[in-house]
Design brief:
elongated
């Protein structure tokens, strides 16, 4: 996987978390959700 492909997947996961959870939560909530998304993509 190239750096561009990896970046695309990570940014996509972060956007999906933001779109799903919205704004106003604690950072730890976003961190947990992003970890889950990255695991689903096989990146963690």
């Amino acid at each position: 996987m190239t750096e561009n492909e990896l970046s695309y997947k990570v940014i996509g996961a972060a956007i999906e978390v933001h779109r799903t959870l919205g704004v106003g939560l604690l950072e730890s909530a976003y961190e947990s959700a992003l970890l889950y998304e990255l695991q689903q993509l096989g990146l963690m």
